[in-house]
Amino acid sequence: MIPAYNEASQIGGVLDTIPDFVDKIVVVDDASPDDTSDVVGQYQKHHSRIVLLRHAMNQGCGGALATGFIWARDNGMDIAVRMDGDGQMNPDDLPALLDPVSRGTADYAKGNRLVTGQAYQIIPKVRYFGNAFLSLLTKIASGYWHVADFQSGYTAMNEKVLHTIDWQKMYKRYGQPNDLMVRLNIYNFRVADVPVDAVYHVGEKSGIQIRKVIFTLSWLLVKMFLWRMKEKYIIRDFHPLVFFYTLGMMFGITTMLLITRMMYYKWIMGFFPSTSSLAAMFSFMSASLFTLFAMWFDMEANKDLKCGMFYEKRRE
Length: 316
Prior knowledge:
Blueprint: E1 2-4, H1 11-16, E2 25-29, H2 36-44, E3 50-54, H3 60-74, E4 79-82, H4 94-102, E5 108-112, H5 118-122, H6 125-142, E6 155-158, H7 159-164, H8 176-186, E7 191-195, H9 210-236, H10 241-268, H11 274-301, E8 306-309
Parallel strand pairs: 1-2, 2-3, 5-7, 7-8
Antiparallel strand pairs: 4-6, 5-6
Helix pairs in contact: 6-9, 8-9, 10-11
């Protein structure tokens, strides 16, 4: 599945490097104003395995992926892989990504660019630290504590995932990988992290502004976290960790109110009230302990979904 938007200069190079064992290459042109569809159309004339789907209106990367995954589901594909059209994903890593899914040890595999020390030198620093921050939030929101580099779009999923996820409800914009991880956890799918190469500066042009999407995705992850708590630990199978998270949030709000009261007294009266100070300290410690215990319970509840790190990569 190749979502493409304004990738006329890059998509040809991507199509040229897709391994021969891939049965179908589905390019979803998300209403590109450039010649992306024309370039893919030229390749179609010589390669019958290429399928071109076009959106009349731009739907975002998640919308393009939804269209591609629905096609894969309805056409009997066993494994569906996402590879972006900007040339930032090394096709040589594809066998390693497919391995845990094809063996049946994982339902979903995703590339992790942060495992090797090279990532810090290759990935632009703003994106690197933004990715790290969002990965921390996504661990909490999704329950996949063993996974990192959630913004990586290099993924593979089996037929069961294709038929279980409601692709029309998946988030359509930049937070699509984060949204999908939460949905996978609700259905208890096993996820594997696979080391892949970080590929940058190959002529791609990114329209993503990390400083803006950080806030958008943070809010999305808060909503998805609350939704996961409701769906997984209340509706589908009750777990007491919801009480710990609730108490942690209640004491956290109380801590902020008490600190605000302390600052008010300091500004008006010139001193911190001792009772409020002690209450704030107690409330902060309670919030921290309840939240940490909730995270621990969440890790234990999801430990069976951990497939470990797959290091079997191609090497010359």
